[in-house]
Amino acid sequence: MDDGSNLNDFAIFVRVVEHGGFAAAARALRAPKSTLSKRVAELEASLGVRLLERTSRRFVVTEAGRDFHRHAAAMLIEAENARSVVLGRLAEPAGTVRLTASLPTAQLSLAGMIPDLVRRWPKLRLLVNATDRFVDLVRDGFDLGIRDHFAPLEDSDLVQRTLQYQPSVLVAAPRYLERHGTPDEPTQLAAHDGLLSGPLDAPCRLTHVRGTAAELSMQPRLFADERLVLLEAASAGLGIACLPFQLCAERLHAGALVRVLPDWTADGVTSTLLMPPRRAELPAVRAVADFLIERFRATETSLTLNPSRSRSF
């Protein structure tokens, strides 16, 4: 420090006060009592204030000493926390981490990521729960959860980290479009069979690449609250579905589905990583969380919606 104070002297002073005297502190620190006394004296000299009143019979902390002790002790705690954080990052993550996610997320995203995660941290034991029921992370004992949602999540005490956003797109099988024609404008969708996620759905908004908005309206042919059912129905040529891009990307690439109105997208789905606050500080949980954030965001950048490659005929 610029005034000549030695941070080690701060630690010595704190230990002397906490042990109630130089003799006890010397035994705890395994250092000569005379050395501790000299270091505290030099600290007082550098500060220009008396921290301790000491005689052969008395050991009293002055008012200035009490104030100094409070701040110096807090400094030592923060220093130890800093050390623990670094050591925690350097140490290889180990132990069991419990993760829950929806079935589509587990099948389409996690299935391809988990082998790399396990290989990266061989001492880690990962338990994955794939379910479409609502899971209470704290009550059910999970360390991490991935929620897919169209509307913002409600406020909670859980730590939230956005993993990925993917738009929804209109898709249909080539044979459906051959029979019913290919719409060129959103208003033409009203004459087409719609594969919808629910009869009570609010009207879905479409957005053009140039920012123009329109409402999605089709003749309902099938309602299903499971998007994999809608994906299969669209692939079978039953109508036009509006699905998250990643869900149908493979079939688009293979030609089993094509984009309808490829210059338009619908409101997308956001994937959010949730963690109970106390669990989020554990090295193993933090390692898995960092891995998932890295991989999901890398996947997001690869979800390029290129209308020129997905136009229907």
Structure, described:
The longest helix has 28 residues, at 63-90. The chain is built from 12 helices and 13 strands. A hairpin with a 4-residue loop joins strand 8 and strand 9. The radius of gyration is 31 Å and the shape is elongated. 45% of the residues lie in helices and 25% in strands. The protein has helices spanning 7-19, 22-29, 33-47, 63-90, 103-120, 137-140, 174-180, 227-235, 245-254, 277-280, 283-302, 307-310, and strands at residues 52-54, 59-61, 95-101, 124-130, 144-149, 159-172, 193-196, 204-208, 213-216, 219-223, 240-244, 258-260, 264-275. Residues 307-313 have low confidence and may be disordered. It has 3 domains: 7-90, Winged helix-like DNA-binding domain superfamily/Winged helix DNA-binding domain (Arc Repressor Mutant, subunit A); 98-161 and 276-296, Periplasmic binding protein-like II (D-Maltodextrin-Binding Protein, domain 2), CATH 3.40.190; 166-269 and 303-310, D-Maltodextrin-Binding Protein, domain 2. With 313 residues, the protein is an alpha/beta fold.
State the CATH topology of the largest domain.
D-Maltodextrin-Binding Protein, domain 2
Global morphology: elongated
Class of secondary structure makeup: alpha/beta
CATH class of the largest domain: Alpha Beta
Strand composition percent: 15-25%
Radius of gyration from CA coordinates: 31 Å
Number of helices: 12
Order of secondary-structure elements:
HHHEEHEHEHEEHEEEEHEHEEHHH
Average pLDDT number: 85
Q: Determine the N-to-C terminus distance.
A: 74 Å
Based on the coordinates given, report the CATH architecture of the largest domain: 3-Layer(aba) Sandwich
